[in-house]
Structures are given as C-alpha cells and as structure tokens.
Specification:
five-stranded mixed β-sheet, elongated, Immunoglobulin-like, Maltoporin, Chain A, about 850 residues, mainly beta, 48 strands
C-alpha cells in the first residue's frame, strides 16, 4: 500500500508570503527566547462527510495579539499535523486552508499553567467542510469568457468555440479574429506569418495534427516583448494544451462522426493525489473530402495574347491522426515542482488527384488536352519529451523555471503520376509520361530555456532568461521516369540536410509610478543555418551576426509604456524590433512540381528581414463587456516576397519528362526593398445578458510594397480589411427540458481583396454554425452538431497580372463538413487509488 501513497493530494501554496513553509520545517529567524523544549501542539484534519484524513492542507500557527507567524506545515497523508517546541503564550490561533474546503480559523485558550511550563495539547479531529455543494461526479469548472482582452494580448478559450468541436487546431485558429489560414495550412496574423508555439515552445506538429478537444486556450500576442523569441515578427500564437490540476480524478471523453468521412474519439484524463498530478490524453481522428480547384491563364508577349490555358483539378483526400500525450507534475515541496511530459503522434495522408488541362491558341481554339492522374500516400511519426522544473522563492513573485524539450519526427511518402496528352479527336498528342516519387525525412529539435523573475520591490521587477534551439533535418526525395520500363532518375530528385541553431539571452526591467508603468527589454540572438544539397554538394544558409561589427543584427530591443487613465481605461504605446528568418523551403533550390503548371522553388540567396513594429493600444472595460482598439505600423526592409514568372526554355527541357507544361509558372522568393503595413484593429466583446454574447472584430490595413528583380517592377500598394463576428446564445428554460441548456453559435468571417506583388488575392468568406445540447445531471453530457462553411463558399483566389501572363486561380483544400460530437465529463474529488482507512489517526500502510 505504500506504493499508492505516491499519488497524494497537491501541495498548497500558503496564503501569505511567510506562510510558504516546507513540510515539517520550522521557520527561520525566530525571536530570541521563543523556543522551549518539549512543548507540543497537534491534531488531525478530516473530511466532514467521509471522515478521511486530508493530506497536504496548510496549517499555520500565529500569535493572536499581532498575527505573527510562529510556525507552519502541511498535513501528513492521514491528515496529522504537529508543532513541536512551541512556547506557551497568552493566546494563539491556527489558520487552516485546503483545496476544495472552507478555511478554518481557531483560537487556542491561554496557557493557565504559566509561560515557562512545558505543555502538550491535542486539538483532536478538526472537520473541514467542502467549499461547494456536492455535485456527485461533476467537475466544477469556472465559467471563463470566450475572449479575454488584455492591453498586450488576447486569450481565446477553446471550450467556448462550439463551431470547432470535433475538428482540429486548423479550425480553432481559423475562428480567431485577425488570423487567416490559407489552403496550404499557412497561418497569417494581420497578413504576416506569426510564430506558432505549443505550450510556449517550438513544435514539429502541424495544426491539423492537433485535435481541437486537446486545446485549452490560444494566446495571441501581436507585438511581443524582448522576453519572447525574436523570430516573432508577425506576432505569436501560443496553443496551450489541456492539463488541469484539480484534486482527484477528472476527465472528459468525446466521440465524433460526420461527413465527408469524419470520425474521431478523444479522451482527456487528470488524476491528482498527493505529490503527483498525472495527465493523459489520447485521440483518433479522420477527415476526408473532395476539393476542386481551377486556374485560367492568358500568356502574353509584348502585350499580345499568345495562347490560353485552363486547368480543372479534383483532389480526394483522406487524413488519419492518432496521438497520445501523458505526463506528471511532482510537487517536491511547497516551492519546487518537477514536470515531465511525453507526446506520441502518428498519421497518414492519402490524396488521389484528377486534373484536366486545356491548351488553346490565341483565338481560343483548343489545340490539345492534358490529363494528369496522381495518387500520393504518406505516413508521419512524431514524439516529444519535455522535462521542466520550477522553483518559487520565499519572496512573493520571485521564481525560476527551466525546461528542456526534445522532439523527433519522421515521414515516408510515395506517389505515382501519369501525364497524358491528346488532340480534340482523342488521338495522342505526345507520348504519356509516368513518374514515380518516393521520399523519407527525419527531423530532430532540442530546446533549452530558463527564465528568472526577481521583484526588486513593490513597483519594480527584473526578468532574465536564456534559450538555445537546435534543429537538425535530413531528407531524400527521388523522382524517377518510368516510361521506358526502366527507372531513370530525374533532376527533380532532392536529397538535403540542414542544421539550424538559435541561441538567445534576454532581460527586461519594469516599473510603476502611480498610474504610469513601463517595461524596457533587450534580447540578443545569434542564429545560424547550414544547408546542403547532398547530390550536388551545394551549400546554402546564413549566419547572423557573422561579424562583430554587425552586432546590431543580434540585438532586439522592446519598449512598453502604459498609462492607467481611469479604473477601466488603459492606454499603451509599445515598440519592438524583430527578425524573420527565411524558412527551409524558401531557401531550398529544389523545384516542386506537385502542380505541373505552378512550380515552386526556393532561393538560397535570401536574407533575413528585420522588422520595426509599433502599436498604440487602448482598452476599456464596461459593465457588459470590453473594447480594444489598436493602431499599428510595421516597417519591413528586405521583406521576403514571392515572385512569379514563366519558366525558362532551359528549365523546361530539364523537366519535360515529368509532364511540366511549357508555359508553367515558376514561383520563388526574393528580398523586396521595403514593405510597410499601416493598420487599425477594433475588437469588442459584449455580453447582452448571461445567455447572449457577441465578439466582433474588424481590421483595416494599408500595405505598400517596393520591390524589383532585374527589370521587373514588383511594387504595389492597396487597402484591405477583414471582419469577423461570433454570436452565442443559450436557452435556459424551466418550462421544457428539451430546450433547456440548448446553445447556439454562429461564426462568420470575411477577408477583402489584398494586394500582393504582381497582383492581388481575391475576397474570401465563410459561415460556421453549431448547436449544443447539455443534458444529464449537472450537465455532465453534451451533444454538439457543427457545420463548417455552411454555404460551401470558402476558397482562396489569386490574380496575377504581369507583362508575360494574366492568371486567375481558385483553390480549395477543405470542404464543407458536418460533425456530431458527444462529450461526457466526469470527476471525483475524493478519488483515491489506495482505499486507505484513516480511522484511528495512524499513518496506515
């Protein structure tokens, strides 16, 4: 039975600073003459209903006259507490606190035998009452709002997002105002790519590999301070996974089914006993669907139409994901906590593509047709281990945290592509081509981070930290021409490896004077990227700073000034310097031919871009909600910008065995001269009453791009805007149980046309709807029906208008889907793995 004592109730931090005393440890700095040998005060804490001893409750002994703390401790596993060597006083008192119970304050009668006399006093069994009414197996959870607006960040509580129930992290993020997710899963915040973290650390997971049921909240920081990674030029999106620390056994289980080919199941479990808090989550999810895309192009020369090209594609996708996440918190004592977390993930993708192509002459008459069929299969594996430590010092607010995270992932893929070409009468235009691809990749990431917070006094605070990130990746991709019956390796093959490293130090100093507060920060980062194309021995990459005289490239200051105008009004002005380093695929010169008429290739000559960001924020709380207004400006010299042009004859000759069109477009990247973004964002959360809540947001942005490559001018400018609205309504009716606790959520989003170099993106909009019914005793169960993209309108369109071509393309990846999700909550505060009998006051085995 002693083994089961390993699972005991959590360590309470005592209410006062001086009350944070280790188990059975007497306070230091005692007054002279306070101790007298052989004096003892003891008792036992028990649950008023069950009679079981209460472990790890805080018991503090005070002088009654001046509330001076004499001693403090946490109760033993059977509820016992004992104070030794206590001097007799005229009057004493004890204060008892425990999670889930009402606090107790008890006077101890004066010692009538004299102060110098030793004494022993048994206070007996002290029964504690549960703080809340008994709810059986229901877990009591605070009712947080869907959106929490802060002067420097927004926090979205995912449990309030009915429309993302039974889906993935992609759908969770997509429903957040100012955040966009394109067809390839790329996330932008205010039209700039943010840094995405899982629990505050880098991840090798993609958003669609994270079930929405495993996400507790999403934190949005638009202009991070020096405390955060400098590569967060576009802001930070931090996804916090579920892990609670409630006493006993708590959990939620859910299952989903829907169309097209939607199915899934999730379990989140938490067990807290004694010095341990265990958490476990597991999921199985599947998503399918057919998505259609189109592209229509006019090829030109000196403004004269040469020919036309049309493309129609249908992709039938099936995605499957499995994941397990488990870990434990070990509360060593009041001030020290050790945490270990282990994640395992696996999944598979299947994509069957059918593409029809039309090649027309300058008069719009079809010359020949093309047909492309492709099937692709891939499997990925992910695992991650994190070990964390936290120490709370005796001084309030002073703490040290450190953790190390190791992540590893691999994937295997293979595909087959058949390209056929024929005349309008059905005869062969040219021989078909057959290509087989296979590949494998392996990725390892190691992150170490330590943070220290030291309050200097009531008004000033110093923070410092260090971070080291290492990323190593190896991959091979082989493409073979199999037309002749023999496999011939094509120049599309791409075997590479790279190592990425970022080391950082930071400090911040913050202070407050009356209604004015400030924070000054400086971060220093040294980054290095070494890439190698194995087959050609081509090396590429960067190092910043590479020389001492370029030290400014390593420094990233931040300044925040905040003025409390009134009790409910706050104004903030902030500035930060950040960096955006080119990603691997932006650097890799490999040519991606997944779309034979829209090729993609990286540019190994890319340089990181440095961004200066300014924000002026105003927030106001009022009786029924809160309002946040933000004016922002971002200056991006050397902005990494996409550039598109028709492929050269030389490149076409190299790739024609792969079925690439002779007038295919090659998309690559360059460093623009400067990109400036001027914007204004307004967010309102309004609670009309306890059952009706709306969140609305609108963001206006004016963007200017100054860029050129060779003789081609890529400069452009224009205004764009986006708006979103989420409305929640819940029926509470005593007249009928059918409608009681029936909730509705509507989420709509619109993004206007947006300028890009050489063209613009077309407007995009969608509407999501969900209905949830809560039932069973204390609403332990719920049934949610959700529809994403109700009118099937969401698609991403791009228009390019250049000297050599004009193209309109519309792409879809996800399609409208319907999901029904059943969820059940359970919990038992007095759950114990060991059915101990605490009667008799002994420490039972």
């Amino acid at each position: 039975m002693k083994f089961f004592r390993f699972f005991i109730i959590c360590v309470l931090l005592s209410p006062g600073v001086n009350a944070q005393v280790d188990r059975d440890q007497q306070p230091t700095g005692e007054a002279p003459g306070l101790r007298i040998n052989n004096s003892r005060l003891y008792g036992k804490l028990v649950d008023s209903k069950t009679g079981k001893g209460i472990e790890a409750a805080s018991v503090q002994l005070y002088l009654y006259q001046n509330d001076s703390l004499i001693a403090g401790m946490l109760t033993k596993p059977n509820g016992d507490f004992s104070f030794e060597d206590v001097e007799a006083q005229d009057s004493l008192k004890i204060i008892i606190t425990a999670i889930g119970y009402d606090s107790v304050e008890r006077m101890i009668e004066s010692n009538k035998e004299g102060r110098s006399t030793n004494f022993e006093r048994d206070l007996g069994n002290i029964a504690l009452q549960l703080k809340t009414k008994e709810l059986g197996n229901v877990t009591v959870v605070s009712n947080r709002p869907a959106l929490e607006l802060g002067i420097d960040r927004k926090v979205y509580n995912v449990s309030k997002s009915l429309v993302s129930t039974g889906s993935t992290g992609i759908d969770v993020i997509r429903n957040i105002p100012s955040v966009s997710v394109d067809i390839d899963g790329n996330v932008t915040l205010r039209n700039s790519p943010p840094q995405i973290f899982i629990d505050g650390r880098p991840t090798i997971l993609t958003l669609d590999q994270i079930p929405s049921e495993n996400i507790e909240k999403v934190e949005l920081i638009t202009n991070p301070s020096a405390k955060f990674d400098a590569a967060s030029a576009g802001g930070i999106i931090n996804i916090v996974l579920k892990k609670n620390k409630r006493v006993g056994l708590n959990g939620i289980v859910s299952a989903s089914v829907g169309a097209p080919r939607v199915a899934g199941g999730n379990l989140n479990l938490n067990l807290r006993q004694g010095k341990f808090n265990f958490f476990l989550s597991g999921s199985l999810n599947q998503f399918g669907g057919k998505a259609k895309t189109t592209a229509n192009r006019i090829n030109k020369s000196d403004g004269i139409v040469e020919d036309y090209f049309n493309q129609y594609t249908t992709n039938d996708r099936l995605r499957r994901f499995q994941s397990i996440r488990l870990g434990a918190d070990y509360f060593i004592d009041n001030r020290n906590t050790l945490t270990i977390t282990q994640d395992f993930g696996k999944g598979s993708f299947q994509n069957d593509e059918l593409q029809d192509q039309e090649y027309l002459d300058s008069a719009g008459i079809v010359e020949y047709f093309g047909r492309r069929t492709a099937d692709a299969h891939s499997i990925f594996r992910r695992n991650s281990t994190r070990l964390g430590y936290k120490h709370n010092f005796l001084q309030a607010g002073r703490e040290l945290t450190a953790d190390i995270t190791f992540s590893q992932g691999s994937n295997d893929e293979n595909s087959g592509i058949i390209n056929e070409f024929f005349y309008p009468d059905g005869s062969e235009y040219k021989p078909s081509s057959v290509v087989r691809n296979d590949g494998n990749a392996d990725n390892k990431q190691l992150t170490f981070q330590a943070d220290y917070i030291h309050p200097i006094n009531e008004y000033t605070k110093f923070e410092a930290g260090a971070r080291s990130f290492h990323n190593a990746s190896k991959s091979y991709f082989n493409a073979y021409d199999v037309n002749s019956g023999f496999e011939t390796k094509l120049p599309l093959s791409n075997n590479y490896e790279y190592d990425e490293m970022v080391n950082a130090l930071y400090f911040t100093y913050s202070g407050k004077r009356k209604t004015f507060s400030y924070q000054l920060g400086l971060r220093a980062e040294h980054s290095k990227f070494d890439g190698l194309l194995v087959d050609s021995a081509l090396k590429f990459g960067y190092e910043y700073p590479s020389k001492l005289e370029n030290a400014w490239d390593a420094l990233f200051p931040s300044v925040f000034f905040t003025k409390q105008l009134t009790e409910k009004d706050q104004l903030q002005l902030n500035y930060s310097r950040r960096i955006r380093r080119p990603g691997f695929w932006q650097l890799n010169p490999f040519i991606d031919i997944n779309d034979p008429v829209n090729l993609r290739q990286g540019n190994p000559q890319l340089r990181p871009e440095f961004i200066n960001s300014f924000e002026l924020n105003y927030s106001r709380d009022y009786e029924k909600g809160n309002f946040l207004a933000q004016l922002y400006f971002a200056n991006n010299p050397d902005d990494i910008t996409q550039f598109s042009d028709t492929i050269s004859t030389e490149l076409y000759n190299q790739l024609q065995d792969a079925g690439v069109a002779p007038n295919a477009i090659l998309n690559t990247f360059i460093n623009a001269g400067t990109t400036n973004r001027y914007g204004a964002e307004f967010t309102l959360q309004h609670r009309q009453n306890k059952n009706f809540n709306i969140i609305s947001s609108v963001d206006f942005q004016y963007r200017t791009v100054q860029a050129s490559t060779g003789e081609i001018d890529l400069s452009n400018k224009g205004l764009s805007w986006e708006a979103s609205l989420t409305a929640d309504y819940k029926i509470e009716s005593k007249a009928t149980s059918l409608l009681n606790n029936l909730g509705f959520q509507l989420n709509g989003e619109y993004e206007s046309s947006e300028v890009i170099p050489q063209g613009r993106r077309t407007p995009e909009y969608r509407l999501d709807l969900a209905v949830r019914k809560e039932f069973l005793k204390k609403n332990k169960a719920s049934l949610t029906f959700a529809v994403n993209d109700v009118f099937n309108t969401q698609r991403w369109g791009t228009i390019y208008d250049t000297e050599t071509f004009y193209q309109e393309s519309y792409r879809r990846w996800n399609v409208r889907n319907f999901r029904v999700t059943f969820s059940y909550k359970f919990g038992k505060a007095d759950f114990s793995l060991a059915n101990r009998n605490n009667r008799g006051g002994g420490d039972d085995d």
